[in-house]
Design goal:
The protein is α+β, with helices and mostly antiparallel strands. It has twelve helices and 24 strands. A hairpin with a 2-residue loop joins strand 16 and strand 17.
Length: 501
């Protein structure tokens, strides 16, 4: 990936946990070591269960490590969207869920006296033409949320904005690493298969049998149930940390691909430019740097990073039973870049379901729900996914590895085969299968994060083909021999040319 977030740079020395080797049993297994999985494991353990958490790489190395870490109910256009699709009652219930999640996180930080830079702050959502700000304000007023519609001096200029008091910002890694651990943790332990009948998850070197399984892997990894490959889309956003810049509030452009800004200890993060994973143009960080220079002048960029998340078609995460026929397997996914409060909501909801307790947000977050107004988005996503699957299989590149710039990647023809090839700055080549191991869509090179991305469902691999994020559970097959042959042929041609001279 391109780089570490400011939270990861400021908190580099987290405790390391062992890799799972052998077969173990637990009352509950949580798959995924981000904030949602970690809080779920924490709450299930507090309810008296023996819990095992497995993470494919390091704890908090994925979406959680790249979050902008705003604990807030002030979440862009979610409320007018919900009022339109589900009514005022559902929109109000979502707001109540966010307040409950905020209270849960703040309570945990207070209970354990955690120093995580937790600070109250005002939040502004603005729009250049004012129309979206007015819609957001009207919807929030209709559901009884106290906000103000104001003319604000935002970092990008004067704009109509919705102002909400008493939102919070924090350092998520300092918070999570300070929570007491009452459960087993296994890092570098990637689940390759889940047998839902036997309630057993299999890894490269072992297995975990559990009474209940929680899949909290950003994109769900059990394709045989739930149809999640059709019901969520992968999204990516980009962020930079501007050292020495200052802000006294958080600011969010109401546009889907607009900017998001918040202060942190030492500067301001500038993020946004959301887009479907695998569809970037390679200029995101350049655009963010240019925007930051306009707002704050030329300053040092302390960090730049990207993060992925999944988006549901109504904006509400899927939390609950993985599918109606699986009552001991649970899913947490689809935070749509609003994962802080929602993670706490999800952890409490899954724990309540497992304990047989009523939860006021069960129906709102249910993966089995159906909401009007989402079918069009479902069809558009299905059409795009089908286009990526079919188009990639029909595409055969004509250009070879010579067309790749040093430090870049491209799907090319290599010795008569279609391969995804990365070229090191010194010219060395690394060739992998061009098709994603998940469902065989063609990979795309992400010049911003220096990764191979699947635009279909969001699987991500590093430049050498190693798996970084689900839904794929396998790395890409490498083709070192073909790359070596290409380099030898290149050297022969060079030697021949020099000899002719």
């Amino acid at each position: 990936m391109r780089g570490y977030s400011v939270w990861q740079k400021n908190n580099p020395c987290g405790k390391r946990y062992p890799r799972l080797t052998g077969d173990i049993s637990a009352n509950a297994l949580v798959i995924g070591g981000g904030i949602a999985g970690y809080l779920t494991a924490y709450m299930l353990a507090r309810s008296g269960r023996k819990v095992a958490l497995v993470e494919g790489y390091r704890l908090f190395s994925g979406t959680t490590g790249g979050t902008t870490a705003k604990i807030t109910y002030h979440q862009g256009g979610i409320y007018p969207r919900l009022v339109k699709s589900s009514g005022i009652s559902a929109a109000r219930r979502y707001y109540e869920a966010q307040r409950a999640g905020m209270d849960e996180l703040i309570s945990l930080a207070t209970e354990h006296n955690i120093d995580c830079s937790l600070s109250p702050i005002d939040g502004y959502i603005f729009s250049a033409d004012g129309d979206e700000a007015q819609r957001i304000y009207a919807a929030m007023s209709d559901i009884g949320v106290r906000t103000e519609l104001v003319r604000a001096d935002t970092p990008v200029g004067s704009a109509l904005a919705v102002r909400a008091e008493d939102q919070f910002i924090f350092d998520p890694l300092r918070f999570l690493r300070a929570l007491p651990v009452g459960f087993e943790i296994y890092e570098n332990t990637r689940v390759s298969r889940v047998d839902v009948e036997k309630k057993t998850a299999y890894t490269e070197e072992g297995s975990v049998h559990a009474d209940m399984i929680v899949v909290a892997t950003r994109f769900p990894i059990i394709d045989s149930h739930g149809s999640y490959i059709f019901r969520i889309r992968p999204s990516e956003s980009y962020t930079i940390a501007v050292e020495g810049a200052t802000l006294d509030a958080t600011y969010l452009d109401a546009r889907e691909d607009g900017l998001s800004l918040r202060p942190y200890d030492g500067g301001v993060t500038v993020g946004g430019l959301d887009r479907r994973t695998g569809t970037g143009d390679g200029h995101a960080f350049f655009a963010l740097r240019a925007a930051a220079a306009r707002m704050f002048g030329e300053r040092r960029i302390a960090a730049e990073w990207s993060a992925q998340d999944c988006v549901t078609f109504d904006g509400v995460p899927y939390v609950g039973y993985y599918s109606p026929e699986l009552r001991d397997v649970y899913v947490i996914t689809g935070f749509g870049k609003w994962g802080m409060a929602n993670s706490a909501v999800a952890a409490r909801l899954v724990t309540d379901l497992a304990d047989g307790r009523d939860n006021p947000f069960e129906r709102l977050y249910s993966p089995a729900r159906r909401r009007k107004g989402t079918f069009g988005a479902f069809l558009r996503n299905a059409a795009r996914s089908a286009a990526y699957l079919i188009g990639g299989r029909l595409h055969f590149p004509l250009r070879g590895a010579r067309s790749i710039e040093p430090g870049g990647g491209k799907v090319v023809r290599l010795h008569g085969k279609k391969r995804a090839v990365y070229k090191e700055p010194d010219g060395r080549l690394y060739a992998i299968d061009a098709m994603c191991p998940h469902l065989r869509a063609e990979l795309r090179w992400n010049a911003d994060s220096k990764t191979w991305d699947c635009p279909c469902h969001g699987s991500r691999f590093d430049r050498y083909g190693n798996l970084l994020s689900a839904p794929s559970v396998h790395s890409c097959k490498t083709h070192a021999r073909l790359a070596a042959e290409e380099e030898r042929n290149k050297k022969k041609k060079t030697d021949t040319s020099e000899a002719d001279v």
